[in-house]
Write a structure and sequence with these properties.
This protein has 17 helices and seven strands. The chain starts with 12 loop residues before the first helix and ends with a helix. The protein is globular and about 60 Å long. The relative contact order is 0.10. A five-stranded parallel beta sheet has the order 2-3-4-1-5, with helices on both faces. A two-stranded parallel ribbon has the order 6-7. Helix 5 crosses helix 12 and helix 13 packs across helix 14. It is 55% helix and 8% strand.
Amino acid sequence: MAVQLPEHGELNQDQRQQVLAAVKGHLLRFGLTQEDVANAIGKFSEPTLCQILKGNYKSGRLDEYVRDLNNWIEQDARRRAGALAKKPLVTTAVVQQVINAAQMCREAGKMGVVMGPTGIGKSATAEELASSIPGTIYLVINEDSYTKQGLLRALCGKMRLSVRRAKGQPSGSRFAKVCAALGGTHRLVILDDADKLNDKSLELLREIHDATRVPMLLIGVVDIWQRIERSADQDHGQLKRRFTVRIDLLQACQRKSGRGRRNEPLFSREQIRQICSPPKVRLVGRATEYLWIEANRHGDGGIGRCLDLVFHATRALRKKHQLGAQGAVSISEADLRSIARRIGKTVWDIQAIEESDAELAKEAKSA
């Protein structure tokens, strides 16, 4: 079970020990290895995790990694308990666009980029693609992998290649290992949060693609294309020409709707109901409407926030009524609003949205 930790500031020794004990207990309970944990978190290697668990890791990033481990316990326990049991991916317009982009990259053996605001389902779709397409390499870019050498280490880790260089070995050996492992495989490489990559890392991806011809799909916010598009830098000019697939999700989904209105909802109410109703959880009253509004707040709400609200509301109701971990609950709008206030954010006023919808309907009728 995860430990209650402060969000910021230095942890004390007792807090660190509680988290490390919880991690060790979780590993024993579910038969997991340290490699499993390191791969799942993706921010440090198995040897680093070994040093952390032994209490021998002295880097200034110790507390950051302890918090990562604590968050991982919570997420893994949630997944195993079925609090948000995995359901078939609901085929929203966003999901279909990301799938189409991956298929085009694979068919052409080219590079592609998909961009859009956070919380609309890009990462969930990428994870589904990674689990359904054999051999896919799925890498979430973080502060350990945004640099050129960090990216090479992360790719080596995903393909279980040694990241250590023998004494006297040239610095380009990791690049050679990655290219040798990918060459001729046609494995799809998906890089999520790719907007975090620095310029040298973006150029490295072009070099890997040119050497191996593997399809690559970069997923991020709109800023990533603006960086790739820069014409003043010759390297980025070469990189831009490699992208035969480029999809701005908001524009693509609005074009598909045939209406082309600004801020066109990406998700329907029925899709929200399907996505946000895990087993033994029922949305009642105006709860679905409330979540629909939140899901369509680009860059502020999103599907991820909706799932968090449902998860915390479910836990609160089960605790309040002493229902146990698998008890059936009915979640109302009031329950969701209460949770939203606790975590420091509120959603748009539903009446204001309805008035806006009514105006749009009136405009469409008059047109």
